[in-house]
Here is the input.
Amino acid sequence: MTKAPPLKNDCFALPPGVHWTPVDDALELLRGRLHPVVTQETVDLDAAAGRILAQDIAALRDHPPLPNTAVDGYGFDGGLDAGEHALPLVQGRAAAGLRFNGAVPKGAAIRILTGAALPKGVTTVVLQEDVVVDGDTVHLRGPVKAGANTRKAGEDMLAGQTILTAGRKLTPADVGMLATVGLHDVPVFTPLRVAILSTGDELLHPGQTAQPGQIFDANRPMLSAMVRAWGYDVVDMGIQPDDPASIRAALDQAALTADVILTSGGASAGDEDHMSAVLNETGSMALWRIAIKPGRPLALGVWNGAPVFGLPGNPVAAFVCTAIFARPAMALLSGQGFETGQGIMVPAGFAKRKKAGRREYLRARLVDGCAQVFASEGSGRISGLSWADGLVELPDGALDITPGTPVRYLPFSALGL
Ligand code: AMP
Ligand code: MG
Here is the structure.
């Protein structure tokens, strides 16, 4: 088992003089600076769905392994011309798992059932619905094409052929395909371990008694649910007060047990922004002032070798930054490729005049094929996130949107959420 090399401390450094980073540049930086940090293990096929393939997989045998019939019917050699045909039936039958070991003479037919290997002397099968059997004779009407209703050996997959490549997150269909070619031990990456930490003196656990001025920690449960939806393991680091020593201790602990750390709150450059201050002490911190709405302050750093995403405290901004930046970054760390989610262009069901400068993400829903957006863009309005089925992504430049203007819609399903 080889451990991946650690990330460099300066892996998030921005070129000098850069103040506002466009979203695409930020994504390119992440793509270029990060690499897989997980190790390999082998799991049983039954436990493989949702795991990430660590090696290319070649088929262990041809599928189908032998030429066989796709239907229940009668088999014979070659095609038949137009007109009536009467074929003598040989004794016995061929069924799936029950090979017929004799040979079928030219001009004769045999009873054959779906999945049965074609006996010697059979290349063509006619559907049982298309024949009349009278004693030992099969009557049918031609023409019948040679090879009809049969499957060739290896027509689906050939032994030795690469059928899945490393980095693939295994789907239920993949599991079926791997089983088909006889694979049972599957090489996968260990799940990425993601530490999640909320910071803020005002935060309480849901269920605690709140004083006025206190709020419940929404980010940690939400981010944990996102991380689990992506198939990673959550390391819960709880809530830390706005206190550098507590934050340092929590990051120390997180870096010991996790591959990547997500924090929320205190990520800007204000007096109470202790997360960015603490990350700054490492010399690894880069406060990425990303040209994005909502959520511009994104503090990135490396703490004892673990990359840290210092997300904004605002829950909507934390969600968007996690979905847009942390998701592809974690995919890369976890052994998958860097993948930002496929959007679709749909007509806007709203009007908006967008200024140039920042890429904007609006909470949205598809209604009759058009994107509707949440009534308020207030980034504290988490109810709009829950209302939404996805995000509308508006480009960095200015845009005057009227109903019908094509906009990019990113369904939550395309973000794995
Ligand atoms: P901050 O980024 O720490 O300045 O926080 C920005 C806003 O988000 C403030 O209104 C915070 O109270 C709020 N906030 C920070 N962390 C959380 C959290 N974990 N859950 C809910 N709201 C939060
Ligand atoms: Mg705060």
